[in-house]
């Protein structure tokens, strides 16, 4: 069962509680704090393009990458005349990053990095980003924390809407900090009948020390570790943190 196949179709409906303009504003703030005011960026795990579109509207050129062709298909449909010349979407596993040029920065938002469940793969991702960063380039990404996943624990979450519903069966393994959930989706078709999709998702909660060690192993310098949407130092008590690495 692959992730983000059936879910791609309704992803934006269930994520309508996310304040994407605020998230993009904060991300742009971090980029500019680190000297990236213009240029080309790569976004890892761009999904349906909500952050990509926001960055493009801020004047950046974006290469949006995602492992899910279904998610990218939705992103393509959203392209407008205002930004279509500033965005290139490519289906790609972030562990096998290949870009046509150097970039001023790499970003990865909405806990895409949590889907990298092996520590060695995290090092590979950071090394791959470093390879394509311009001198003094930065890699900014967010993460849900172990504390966040622990707070969900073993739980079942359900939401019922007219056009789509889901059942989220969650399990968090304390031994390896892997969060597993089975997502059952019921999506209403044009004929009024509901199609069922089942997906399995795996995410890992990384400790701050693990992030520091991975960055060191990949040859990147840690500039900042922030509590999400602030400039306060991150801690294990936060639900989401932002990491800023520099080449």
From TrEMBL:
Any GO BP annotation: methylation
SUPFAM superfamilies found in the cross-reference section: S-adenosyl-L-methionine-dependent methyltransferases
InterPro entries the UniProt entry points to: Methyltransf_25, SAM-dependent_MTases_sf
GO molecular function per UniProt: methyltransferase activity
Domain Methyltransferase: 42-137
Pfam families per record: Methyltransf_25
UniProt-listed Gene3D superfamilies: S-adenosyl-L-methionine-dependent methyltransferases, Vaccinia Virus protein VP39
Keyword vocabulary terms for this entry: Methyltransferase, Transferase
The name this protein goes by in its record: Class I SAM-dependent methyltransferase
Species assigned in the record: Eubacterium segne
Lineage of the organism: Bacteria, Bacillati, Bacillota, Clostridia, Eubacteriales
């Amino acid at each position: 069962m692959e992730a983000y196949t059936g879910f791609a179709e309704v992803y934006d409906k269930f994520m309508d509680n996310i304040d994407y303009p605020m998230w993009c504003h904060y991300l742009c703030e971090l980029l500019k704090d680190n000297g990236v005011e213009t240029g080309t960026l790569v976004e890892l795990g761009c999904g349906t393009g909500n952050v990509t579109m926001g960055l493009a509207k801020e004047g950046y050129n974006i290469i949006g990458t995602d492992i899910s062709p279904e998610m990218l298909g939705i992103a393509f449909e959203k392209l407008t005349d205002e930004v279509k010349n500033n965005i290139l979407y490519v289906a790609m596993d972030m562990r096998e990053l290949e870009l046509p040029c150097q970039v001023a920065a790499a970003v990865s938002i909405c806990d895409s990095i949590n889907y990298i469940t092996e520590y060695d793969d995290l090092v590979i991702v950071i090394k791959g980003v470093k390879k394509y960063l311009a001198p003094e380039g930065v890699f900014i990404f967010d993460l849900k924390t172990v504390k966040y996943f622990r707070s969900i624990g073993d739980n079942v979450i359900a939401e019922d809407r007219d056009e789509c519903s889901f059942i989220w069966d969650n399990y968090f393994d304390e031994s390896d900090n892997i969060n597993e959930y089975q997502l059952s989706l019921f999506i209403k078709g044009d004929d009024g009948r509901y199609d069922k999709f089942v997906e399995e998702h795996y995410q890992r909660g990384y400790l701050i020390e693990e992030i520091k060690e991975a960055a060191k192993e990949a040859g990147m310098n840690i500039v900042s570790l922030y509590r999400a949407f602030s400039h306060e130092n991150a801690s294990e008590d936060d639900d989401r943190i932002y990491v800023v690495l520099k080449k």
